[in-house]
Prior knowledge:
single chain, alpha+beta, 6 helices, elongated, binds zinc ion
Amino acid sequence: xxxxxxxxxxxxxxxxxxxxxxxxxxxxxxxxxxxxxxxxxxxxxxxxxxxxxxxxxxxxxxxxxxxxxxxxxxxxxxxxxxxxxxxxxxxxxxxxxxxxxxxxxxxxxxxxxxxxxxxxxxxxxxxxxxxxxxxxxxxxxxxxxxxxxxxxxxxxxxxxxxxxxxxxxxxxxxxxxxxxxxxxxxxxxxxxxxxxxxxxxxxxxxxxxxxxxxxxxxxx
Length: 220
Ligand SMILES: [Zn+2]
């Protein structure tokens, strides 16, 4: 899942787009200025330029050699299968990551709780939810990682609460972990279903049995 990230740079031929996050070719434009009040000839700004992403077809705004909109982030975008309410919090954390990594970490712990309660069936407390998710295929390594970043376990921080010890590294791990849970509990099972649905002669109850075996096999 780890990919190299090329930060947007002035007049760059290609970089990770601040809109879509994808590494894409960029076209560059000078900006023509038209004075709204006076009937003067059009002029070009020396300071203002735009980069245009080949992939998502959005324009980013630059002043001199600095990008001013949107604010680029090396934090990966939320995975496509992440539920919408969790995406909103993830995106908020992504927007404030550089100015306040501690706030981002607090939001992300909250988002991870929200995601796990969304996915689990037993809702009494987070430990029950985790147990339930283990049965649904949550990797024991992810469970251990959640303990070590204080989402769960003896040292857990209440979701949404600030931990003064948090820093950028901690927030980055939490972003990755959130995407990893989505991948493991939503995207992967969906892929398995897609593969099973594409089998030509597996229909009816036999298909269900095969599905069960196939899932068990993948999670070994
Ligand atoms: Zn783009």
